[in-house]
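Issue: ligand-bound run for zinc ion - logging full I/O for the record.

Environment: standard queue, default settings, no custom constraints.

Inputs:
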Amino acid sequence: MDRESVLHRDRAEAAERRGESVAASPQQAMKIRVLGCSGGIGGSLRTTSFLVDDDILLDAGTGVGDLTLEQLARIDHIFVSHSHLDHVASIPFLVDTVCWMRGSPIKVYGIKETLDILRAHLFNWKIWPDFTQIPDGDKPFMVYREIRVGEPIQLGSRRFTAIPANHTVPAVGYAIENERGALIFSGDTSTNDALWKVVNATQNLKYLIIETAFSNKERAIAVASKHLCPRLLAEELEKMRARPEVFITHLKPGEGALTMKEVGEAAGRWRPRMLENNQEFSL
Ligand SMILES: [Zn+2]
Ligand SMILES: [Zn+2]
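Outputs:
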């Protein structure tokens, strides 16, 4: 972040603490960097996470662990798509690592059902301490922020809106926007007509990141676990009237090349490309 951006962020945070809405900063470009985009781990593979500018995470899979201590300490906001471990695994370590270095709590955003699961099954004092009560409930290291599908959260010039997903647990994707354009991340999802309503209604949609977790031979597993395979992806893309650049994420380790070959065969006319770790998008 340059000095102007830091000043803007500091002013915005002060305004937010006073309960005022945060002013937009239209001149500022937004950077979205892939920290992890695999369905698993091993070698250079990392599970799902995106770093937006230097202060926001979209999901917090194992890729977060590649950030430096200084970078970790700058994370103020974490938007969670759903409660599965490959999307939240780094939140406990992140909060524990940087809490002593920060003056304000890390905000974890999710739909009510997702936050309830994190409370009951992750930050429950058994798997990990409840950092919303540490050091005390009045001034905690972490807070939950409940969001609703379709209701945007504005952070400076950046807007995050949860969008519908269709998965085995309550889940959302996200639309990330500023005045320059939009990026949509499907989250983990199977067949999902509601997603395409949002995609088709989004102004200036530049990028679509959509999952294809399994190859065609595992179609039955994809259906049962509410993910997509290449043929299902093609059926879904048929519903798209917008023409964003399409990137494929959440490929199963060891099956990336096969799945992308099948994606090319089934859905080639949308020119989908494999999402790469450290790839950066600019809006
Ligand atoms: Zn999942
Ligand atoms: Zn996943």
